[in-house]
Fold this sequence. Notes:
Elements: E1 10-22, E2 28-40, E3 44-48, H1 55-63, E4 70-75, E5 78-79, E6 87-90, H2 102-106, H3 116-128, H4 144-156, E7 162-166, H5 174-191, E8 194-199, H6 202-208, E9 211-216, E10 221-226, H7 242-253
Parallel strand pairs: 3-8, 3-9, 6-7, 7-8
Antiparallel strand pairs: 1-2, 1-4, 4-5, 9-10
Helix pairs in contact: 4-5
Amino acid sequence: MEMNTNKGDLLLQFQNVSKTFVDKQFRKVQALTDLTFSLHQGEFIVIIGSSGCGKSTLLRLIAGLDKPSMGNILYRGKQIEEPDKRRGLVFQSYSVFPWLTVRENIEFGLENRNSRNNQEKVSNWLTFTGLTEFEDAYPKVLSGGMRQRVAIARTMIVEPELLLLDEPFGALDERTRESMQGLLIKAAINSGCSVLLVTHDIREALILADRIFLMESHPGRIMGTFIPPSEKPRTRNHLSLPEFKSLYDEILDRFPIQILQ
């Protein structure tokens, strides 16, 4: 039975969704099977699983970049057919345009980007992400964390209803990751958008999530749902509390050892 403590409007529904594809050796691969869950407005869901469990495939389906083999994926009650700015996707691999400055990257998706209102939006996001002094710099001179801040700002400035994040902090050091987690929570709260993040890091899930979905592999399916034991905001200090340690151990006991970092 799916648990949900969020009272916002129903935003996303997976109804018995499966995804099959053919790999480079022409073998049939069942990436996802019988996924059923929902996400509500303002909710932050984290999906954890090891490599190959179909997490990225799931995000591509929601983003409209791919279609399910079976089942239905509904966004505000309508079948997802194609990409939509209401659903913004941020990848792990610092998806910024190297030939554009920081400011140009952030404003890229805006229509009428030279309007006063939109330029104010860009300036506000530069300030929020701490990138104001780098607005004329090119990505090659930025750190990984700074490039990921650019990617998040570029996605959020078009005001998506649902932010999709594919292990966005996986390549960052621990201190930078913690800073980015705090920035992400503030951005989601300030904008009112929902978030679906996939990761293999249990600790990250415990800090960020309203609900945690645990996925198993081959084929990918949800094998458990968990709710962290306190309201947000949370920090790494919460992870030392007995109730967090207990939930960490419960999730770990049900999951393959390869997710450990």
